[in-house]
Structure formats: structure tokens, C-alpha cells
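Following up on my earlier message about cytidine-5'-monophosphate. Here are the inputs again, as you asked, copied directly from the submission form:
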Amino acid sequence: MIPEAADRAGDVGMIIPAAGLGERMGGSLRKPFIELEGEPILFRTCRRLASVPGVFEIVVALHPDDLDFFRDRLWDRALASGVTLAVAGGACRAESVWNALQVMSARAELTAVHDAVRPFAAVDTVKALIALARRRGAAVPVSPMDDTIKRIEGDRVTETPRRLGLVRVQTPQVFRSDLLIEAYEYAIRTGGLSANITDDAQLVEALGAEVAALHGGAFNLKITSASDLRLARALLAAGLAQ
Ligand code: C5P
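Thanks, got it. Here's what our run produced:
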């Protein structure tokens, strides 16, 4: 049982951007609402994050077309999963996060941003990211890049960036809230929010502020395609994820 927001101790606010169209998955249901063993992916994700010590608030940004359905039909399940507020998302991920930042309570010294479709983030990793962000201002989970990376145009390879030093970045990304707000305000002033902004740390980097990295674990899967969904089900069935 997850306590009501006002009763939860802590100073970490969580933002879950879940307003994407989910075009890559196919089907009519948006990705966050697709069920994984009887529970919408979004709620599985929120339940996991609500169990992290210090997290007292979870704001989800939803596609505007989903808000009424969510409030009328899913609100009880949302509350039971630790969600405290739902807001309308924007035209791109960064706009959705910015909308959620507007309603984040002033008690949130730290703000974490986590993709709705990553239900398997390990609690110990999230705790470590929170501790690191408290010390250094910003912290992101990364995983090694084992494949060689190519840039292509159509079906033609145009470039092979050096792999040394490259990693993949995951979520949750954790920030001191004042730093994240400053980074968003700077981005809005200088180029605006667009779909080119694919994570939050890049806005903090653009300020010239330090972003610390730690290993995020192999099973923090982002469920983006139908094959990711099959993999997620297989991880659950094999007991490799919960
Ligand atoms: O498109 P991408 O996979 O990077 O999306 C990452 C997350 O951002 C997803 O959880 C998606 O629902 C969310 N998103 C959003 N608002 C948008 C586009 C994406 O909240 N307009």
C-alpha cells in the first residue's frame, strides 16, 4: 500500500512523461497503457518509483486526449500506483516535462525524470542516482555501448563515430530542481523546446553544468517496439525483472 502524497516523507519529485503517440508500437493503445502481466506499463513504472525512499510526488504528463479517460476510469489505480497528479503533455517530450515541472511542489529539492515505458529501473540504482544528484547537481544512468555506431542516410553509411567513450543514457535522470528549471528556462529562451531534445541532461549540459554518470544496469529496458514488449514479458517470466 502506497501512502497518500501528503503523508510521504522526502524531497524528491518524479516526473513521468507519458504523452508520446507510441507510433512505433502499432495498435491503438498508447504505449504506457499497454498491459504487462495485467498491469498498464505506466502503473508498473510508477509503483516501482513510489517505493524509492525520498520520492513523495509523482506527476505524469499524458496525451491531452487521454486525460479525461485517465481521470474518469483509471484514477483509483493511478493513486494506488503512487501517482499524485496528471497534467496534459505537450507536442514533444521536453514540452511534456516542462508542463509537469510547472506543477511540481516547492518541497521537491530534487526532480527526477523517468520514461513511462521503463518499468524495470532498479530501486538501488535510483537511490544511488538521488544521492549522486544531491552531491553533484545532476546524475544520469548509463550503459555500455557494445555495438559500433554508424550514421546512415537512407541505406548508405556516411560515418562511423569513434566508439571510445560513448555510452547509452537511460532514465531516471535526477537533478537539483533549481538547476533543471534554470536549464529549461535557458533552452526556452535560446532555441525553444523541440523533439531534438531527447533527454533532460542535455539541457543541463548546455548550461555548462556538470552531469555525473553511473551504471544503470542491463535490465532497465525502454519498451519502444513490439519486440521490446516481448522481451519485457520474457524477463518477467524468467524472474530477471519484477
Ligand atoms: O519518443 P521517446 O521514446 O523518446 O519518448 C520518451 C518518453 O517521452 C515516452 O515515455 C513518451 O511517452 C514521452 N513523450 C511525452 N510527450 C511527447 C512525446 C513523448 O511525454 N510529446
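One observation from looking it over: The first strand starts at residue 12 and ends at 18. Hope that helps, and feel free to reply on this thread.
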